[in-house]
Design a protein that fits this description.
19% of the residues are buried. Helix content is 24%, strand content 37%. Helix 2 runs antiparallel to helix 3. The chain contains 3 helices and 14 strands. The radius of gyration is 26 Å and the shape is elongated. The longest helix has 35 residues. Strands 4-7-2-1-9-13-12 form a 7-stranded mixed β-sheet, with no helix packed on it. It has 283 residues and is of the alpha+beta class. It folds into 2 domains: 74 residues; 200 residues, Immunoglobulin-like (Sandwich), CATH 2.60.40.
Length: 283
């Protein structure tokens, strides 16, 4: 048994939570008590009668009780998101294949659990265009993890998939997960953009990269833009709200060119990505 498995035992999780609760309550009580003593000694000792001081103390204790009760509500009743995303990196490799393209999509992310017993990390994607079904391949980037595939689009046009690390992640613990998808657009051309988001999960940092062969560098056809969308709407109704300058990187040895967008603290329900143009006969 490794250290993570040992620390994830239910008894130890309960003990950790109890210790954290006692420490937090002790800090609040000690701070308010010290403030009350200082105020009484410095301001009220010679000016306020004992009966008034008792009333003030009772009011402060009532305020303390309210603060503690509200804190307990936030900790034990209010439901936070199951996890937050500390960082994720997404890469889309665009490969010409005759009269269409093959796309290799990878997303690797590190998350921290906000609750105990977190088992599933969600990935959702909306792809335009259409391809032959048997050319679609989806897998976990980490071989020990299991992929649960929703396969079909939901009403909002997105396909939901989940990665199961084959163990429960306790509150405060971190795990790295990833997904890889390969597909082609041999039936209907995919639209020339690629965007990602943390959706409803608070995200500290994200990066989005689109990689082309040098021969298909879209810069020759026009400006390649970094864009931000409000995606708290169905995909067909999401709206661009801002523009960002992507970073262009050329790999002479691999004969590829990357367009990269890095975002610190992206907004909830906002997507960020790269927009380019296809040649006229491919639009």
């Amino acid at each position: 048994m490794d250290l993570d498995q040992f620390l994830d035992k239910p008894v130890l999780r309960i003990l950790r939570n109890a210790v954290a609760t006692i420490r937090a309550l002790g800090t609040v009580v000690a701070t308010l008590a010290a403030a009350l003593v200082v105020l009484y000694l410095s301001l009220w000792k010679d000016k306020v009668s004992p009966s008034v001081a008792i009333v003030i103390a009772a009011a402060l204790l009532a305020l303390l009780a309210f603060i503690v009760g509200f804190w307990l509500y936030l900790q034990h009743v209010y439901n936070p998101a199951y996890y937050e995303i500390l960082e994720f990196e997404s890469l889309l490799i665009v490969q010409p294949l005759g009269d269409h393209h093959r796309y290799q999509y990878e997303r690797r992310q590190r998350v921290r659990a906000n609750r105990d017993e977190v088992r599933l990390i969600e990935f959702n994607a909306h792809w335009t265009g259409a391809g032959t079904r048997d050319k679609l391949h989806v897998e976990s980037l980490i071989s020990d993890h299991a992929l649960l595939d929703g396969r079909r689009q939901e009403e909002d046009g997105r396909v939901r998939r989940w990665i199961y690390p084959r163990r429960a992640i306790s509150k405060g613990r971190e795990v790295e997960v990833g997904i890889r998808q390969i597909h082609e657009d041999d039936i209907e051309r995919q639209l020339p953009y690629f965007r990602e988001s943390g959706s409803q999960h608070r995200t500290r940092k994200m990066s989005v990269t689109v990689r082309f062969n040098r021969e298909e560098d879209p810069q020759a056809l026009g400006e390649v833009k970094g864009m931000e969308w409000n995606t708290n709407l169905p995909p067909r109704h999401s709206k661009p709200v801002d523009y960002h300058d992507p970073i262009r990187r050329v790999n002479q040895d691999a004969k590829t060119v990357d367009y990269l967008l890095v975002v610190e603290k992206p907004k909830l329900f906002h997507s960020y990505g790269i927009v380019w143009q296809w040649p006229p006969d491919e639009s």
